[in-house]
């Protein structure tokens, strides 16, 4: 483990609160999420990171991926990375009595000529850009949470951890006597500042669902990345391994990452879009007032903002599909009866693309399209971009479960074509990012026969442990 003696480190040149946070840690793990959703990590001593930050410099992630990689691209996975110190938090599963380890998020910032604006190629940076636009243009903040589904196997990755061909929904006896392991893991994740609300078994073999309290801005996507890594480390210590493949089994339900979100008006009290740094979790939290989706005077409690936002998501639903289901294995989930088939919406309707949960005091949207293999940052970025298009154009929301709703893509080829044709999403997320993202999928399509990518065993070799 990389460490440094805290007493030997000169902090005199670090007056900011964010820099002072480094005093809590000996080592910091920097996380870089690539377009595929796979995370790269770099361990660095806190003293070295302090020097880099003081010099306004960047951290280098080397380009070790092969040119024919189906996981790592040459755009978002290597280069000079900017560290987001507001995301710094403890990592209990890596820390020891003698070495405290923290973690922070990074994103690649391409080098450009002086005076020119670098293109956005990082998924996290793309999400932050759309969230900033939402705040600046509409004085709205997004509050969101993913519902994480995963499957847990024995270490070899072939047998479900509980030895069962199925799990009983919400039954503790499906935990196979390993309750203490999972309870300890939950405590570690909570110690990393992750707002976990529940952990329960789902219906498929070894399947769990984790739910979170809603968070502001990009924090919900950060939580997905942090919790994935924490689960891999903690379960590995108990001879188990999780997978976030959409469909790792031939005949079973798939894993989804439903994206729950709502919009909130920002009360800036005349001081602009202020934000404060939570020194325990490191996330920036904008001051919020009311739920902009909720109108207690309407029969269904849905505001005009809600309806325009829904209309934007529905209009761009086909273009959103590839961001939600980007891998060959995801195509199996698209055939699952529980996966939405049309770009529609409905109140409390689990078969809809957009399930609206409404009450007089709270309204939010559950996007049921994302698979567990999605890149959470790209889901956030694309959903916000699509929703803002509905607000800008004041699009008219179609009726519930509209029979004329356009079908959602059910193959990768269709999803690629729909994204390529959606000029609004391409322009919002940036042509450079979308082109690099599409190239990963197009490579899979082009080589599906030579690499036997339609074979589940081959898919598992690629995605089972890394996605």
Structure report:
The protein is of the alpha+beta class and 467 residues long. The protein has 2 domains: 6-118, Ubiquitin-like (UB roll), CATH 3.10.20.70; 125-467, Creatine Kinase, Chain A, domain 2 (2-Layer Sandwich), CATH 3.30.590. Helices cover 31% and strands 22% of the residues. It contains 13 helices and 17 strands. It has helices at 17-20, 46-54, 123-138, 179-191, 219-237, 304-315, 317-324, 330-334, 376-393, 412-421, 423-429, 431-446, 456-463; strands spanning 27-33, 39-45, 59-61, 79-90, 101-108, 140-154, 196-201, 207-212, 215-216, 240-243, 257-266, 275-277, 284-286, 288-291, 345-347, 354-358, 363-367. It starts with 16 loop residues before the first helix and ends with a helix. May act as a component of the cytoskeleton or as a chaperone for the reorganization of intermediate filament proteins during terminal differentiation in the lens. Does not seem to have enzymatic activity. Residues 123-467 form the GS catalytic domain. Dodecamer. Interacts with BFSP2 and VIM. Pfam families: Gln-synt_C.
Describe the secondary-structure layout:
Blueprint: H1 17-20, E1 27-33, E2 39-45, H2 46-54, E3 59-61, E4 79-90, E5 101-108, H3 123-138, E6 140-154, H4 179-191, E7 196-201, E8 207-212, E9 215-216, H5 219-237, E10 240-243, E11 257-266, E12 275-277, E13 284-286, E14 288-291, H6 304-315, H7 317-324, H8 330-334, E15 345-347, E16 354-358, E17 363-367, H9 376-393, H10 412-421, H11 423-429, H12 431-446, H13 456-463
Parallel strand pairs: 1-5, 15-16
Antiparallel strand pairs: 1-2, 3-4, 4-5, 6-8, 6-9, 6-10, 6-11, 7-8, 11-14, 11-17, 12-13, 16-17
Helix pairs in contact: 3-9, 4-5, 6-9, 7-9, 7-10, 9-11, 11-12
Domain GS catalytic: 123-467
Family: Belongs to the glutamine synthetase family.
Protein name: Lengsin
């Amino acid at each position: 483990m990389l460490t440094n003696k805290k007493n030997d480190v000169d902090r005199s040149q670090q007056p900011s609160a964010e820099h002072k946070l480094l005093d809590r840690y000996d080592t910091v793990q920097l996380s870089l999420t690539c377009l595929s959703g796979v995370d790269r990590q770099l361990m660095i001593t806190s003293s070295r990171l302090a020097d880099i930050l003081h010099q306004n410099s960047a951290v280098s992630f080397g380009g070790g991926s092969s040119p024919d990689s189906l996981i790592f691209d040459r755009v978002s996975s290597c280069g000079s990375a900017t560290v987001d110190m507001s995301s710094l938090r403890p990592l209990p599963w890596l820390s020891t009595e003698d070495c405290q380890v923290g973690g922070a998020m990074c994103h690649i910032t391409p080098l450009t000529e002086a005076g020119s604006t670098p293109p956005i190629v990082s998924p996290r940076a793309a999400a932050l850009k759309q969230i900033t636009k939402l705040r600046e243009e509409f004085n709205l903040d997004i509050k969101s949470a993913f519902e994480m589904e995963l499957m847990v196997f024995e270490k070899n990755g072939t047998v479900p951890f509980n030895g069962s061909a199925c799990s009983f929904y919400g039954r503790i006896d499906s935990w196979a006597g390993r309750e203490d392991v999972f309870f300890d893991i939950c405590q570690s994740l909570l110690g990393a500042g992750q707002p976990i609300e529940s952990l329960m078994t789902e219906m498929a073999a070894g399947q769990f669902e984790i739910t979170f309290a809603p968070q502001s801005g990009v924090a919900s996507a950060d939580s997905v990345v942090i919790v994935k890594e924490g689960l891999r480390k903690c379960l590995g210590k108990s001879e188990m391994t999780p997978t976030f493949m959409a469909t790792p089994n031939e005949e079973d339900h798939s894993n989804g990452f439903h994206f729950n979100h709502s919009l909130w008006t920002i009360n800036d009290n005349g001081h602009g879009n202020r934000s404060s740094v939570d020194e325990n979790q490191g996330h920036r939290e904008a001051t919020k007032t009311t739920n902009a989706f909720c109108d207690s005077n309407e029969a269904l409690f849905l505001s005009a903002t809600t309806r325009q936002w829904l209309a934007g998501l529905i209009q761009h639903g086909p273009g959103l599909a590839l961001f939600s289901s980007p891998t060959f294995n995801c195509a199996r989930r698209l055939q699952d009866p529980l996966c939405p088939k049309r770009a529609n919406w409905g109140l409390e309707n689990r078969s809809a693309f957009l399930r609206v949960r409404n009450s007089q005091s709270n309204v939010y949207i559950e996007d049921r399209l994302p698979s567990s293999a999605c890149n959470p940052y790209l889901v956030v970025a694309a959903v916000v971009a699509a929703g803002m298009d509905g607000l800008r154009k004041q699009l008219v929301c179609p009726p519930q479960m509209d029979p004329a709703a356009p079908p959602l893509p059910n193959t990768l080829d269709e999803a690629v074509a729909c994204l390529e044709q959606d000029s609004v999403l391409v322009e919002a997320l940036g042509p450079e990012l979308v082109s690099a993202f599409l190239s990963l999928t197009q490579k899979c399509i082009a080589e599906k026969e030579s690499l036997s990518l339609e074979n589940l065993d081959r898919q598992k070799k690629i995605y089972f442990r890394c996605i």
